[in-house]
Amino acid sequence: MKKVVALLIAAAMAFSVIACASDAPGDAAPPVEEAQPSVNNGAGTITVDVSEGANSIGFFLDDVDPQSRRTYDVVWSFMRPMPLMQNIGDALVELEDILNVNIIHYNADGDIDALIQNIEIFAAQGVDGFIIVIDPTASERIKEVLDNTGIPYIAMLNSVRDENGRAIVPGVGLDGYQAGRIKTQWLYDNYRTYWGEIDTARLGLLNFNFSPNVDFNDRYLGALSMFQELFPGNTNIFSADGVAGRLDEQTGFDLASAILATNPDVEHWFIPACLEHYAQGAARAVESLGMQDRVLITTTGSDILSAAWDSGYDGAAWVSCIGIHALQYAAPALCALVALMNGTATPDTLWSGLRAPGDLYTFFYVELEIVTRDTYQDFFNRIRAEAGLG
Amino acid sequence: MDIAGIAKKFIKGKTFSLLCMLMLIIVFFWYFSPNHSFLSVTNIVIILNSMVLFILFAVAVSMLIISGEVDLSPGFIGTAAGATMAALLEGGTVPWFVAVIICLLMGIGFGLINAVLVNKFRIQSFIATLAVGTFLARGFSFIVSGGRAIPVRDPVISWLGTARIGDVVPVTVLISLAIILVYGTILSKTKFGRGVYLCGGNREAARLAGLNPKKLSYLLFANSGMLGALAGILFVARIRSGNLDGTNAFSFPAVTAVIFGGISFGGGSGKMLGCFLGLLIINAFNNGLTIMRVSPFWQDVASGLLLLLALTLDYISTRRANRASIPKSARRLKQEG
């Protein structure tokens, strides 16, 4: 019996591996006779910035016809399985044919040690490039391991900075501080449409944050600074830090309910949420308190709200968000990586015209645009068209 | 016992089943991996490197499981120790060896708290260690680090975590292999080790035989805390940062690997070799799936399937062994009655 079960185990393993493998096993190794990607770590003589001609979402092609070379194996690696990571992974896959790459997904399930180990595993298997979310808690070490592989890579979402705050890895992400400022600015520009003239002395800011996360904190700080500029002297500023709870809708609901219900002096509210789930929770809190006509909510990211709009949501309070399509992350990252693998760009030449003063490499910021129920579909269609997906 | 008898006993044993399974995995992935790279030196080192922290946690919990207790706190203790070490080294005023000693003592301290809760307050070890881990040690990590990741730049600690002997074998791999070898020897070749088995098999019988199960429990919990702290130190050395999530998630997989390796959850049986083989099988399997480019979502399913089937195998073999130990006449009587 014992041996029968042992055989069963072997059969099950064989079945699961064969069933799950994305490629035929024998196809995984690159053909020897074709050109190998060259690695450019900034020491080469390339001076032309091939990314200069990128369109508004950062999509570009270099001088190498993708179909004239072999298919590159690119690892999409991240720490935790989240909808955003899945969406970016899906967007990368959508670009596979256009850029002639094969995307390999890897998620470390929260284990940073495993993330590092797997960089080495993939490197040993001869992959051509990495698009990787470099966890800020161990960015130095991850960068070191990536550098040791000699394989080109692009950082996704999180910028990697040295002790002086200079970006030291080319990457693609979102400017959290600007996102915060844009949201509050939009609320200011549009509140009269929803409320007419109001007493701005009785206007309040409910500003969400998740302080351990630098990017969310930047969004919080940006929203705060813009509010202070627009309404100097207004002290109705309330911080709602989700660190006491989690990154979920319930935490947004709990924090918003408590603040909205216990500050009757504030007549109207701006809520620029740093995270969609918090905006979702705040919207529910507003509805349960019957304050729909006194609160305006906006947020960074559009996955939840656009899906709600698709299914007929017409919330009076949660009226807008910064539209973000995963292709906005995937397209510039993959185009840049392909250019690195082709040898037509170096980390130094990539997006050189957009480099922030002092940075060693450029962190490419995705376009920030507020969308509403009336504009979101046009926005997403435009993003897809600019990524070459019609 | 003659050679044939020894061979028969070996073939019937758990170690043989584990070796067979390991061989199957090796042959399978060797054959199907691109360029047969599964058995390349680089990949073998990668597999061993991926086992380092799990080995420490597995050794810590397996000693306790054999003695009839369980400890779910080492992962959290590791995080606390790692965060503490990063905080101590941050200013550059505390020498690395002082920081390491403080962290190891801290691990022993947490282990002793576990032991007191279990032995003095009679709280089940499962509950006591979960509480100490998830609340005390985890809370301590937050307090020490102030809720942020602390970079570690001490050259000795960095060397410890990333250096390779002969540019091939990571130092941490050698440390972990040495530890499992030492603990395996203690367990199988010393009076202390026999005492651990005896306590796990029958605590009362052990006490009547002149052993002190309570004292042993204190020692093993302290040891578990120390090994957890050591793992936390190595973790921080490897990623060069005191990370708030740290090694929190390592305890459960370590316990799983220990059970997989044939150490009975009921206590009193199992070997470090089985524990090592269990870890090797799980890590080699995961490595093979990655090399085969299996989607990470499917990897979890495949690993779960492997584990479930292995545990079924263990259940069947245990049941057969139990049945074999009951005389035929007694079994017939039971069936009739």
Description:
The complex is a heterodimer of chains A (390) and B (337). In chain A, 41% of the residues lie in helices and 15% in strands. By secondary structure, chain A is an alpha/beta fold. Chain A folds into two domains: 38-174 and 326-386, Response regulator (Rossmann fold); 176-322, Response regulator (Rossmann fold, 3-Layer(aba) Sandwich), CATH 3.40.50. In chain A, the strands form three sheets. Chain A has a six-stranded parallel beta sheet with strand order 2-1-3-4-5-11, sandwiched between helices. Chain A has a four-stranded parallel beta sheet with strand order 7-6-8-9, with helices on both faces. Chain A has a two-stranded antiparallel sheet with strand order 10-12. Chain B has 337 residues and is mainly α. Chain B is globular. The longest helix of chain B is centred in the last third of the chain and has 30 residues, at 296-325. In chain B, 76% of the residues lie in helices and 2% in strands. Chain B has 15 helices and four strands. Chain B has helices at residues 3-12, 14-32, 41-66, 74-90, 96-119, 125-145, 155-162, 171-189, 191-201, 203-208, 213-239, 251-260, 272-291, 296-325, 328-336, and strands spanning 150-151, 164-165, 169-170, 241-242. Chains A and B meet through helix 1, strand 2, helix 4 and helix 5 of A and helix 2, helix 3, helix 11, helix 13 and helix 14 of B.
Primary descriptors:
heterodimer, A: 390 residues, alpha/beta, Rossmann fold, 2 domains, 6-stranded parallel sheet, 4-stranded parallel sheet, 12 helices, 12 strands, B: 337 residues, mainly alpha, ABC transporter involved in vitamin B12 uptake, BtuC, two-stranded antiparallel ribbon, two-stranded antiparallel sheet, 15 helices, 76% helix, globular
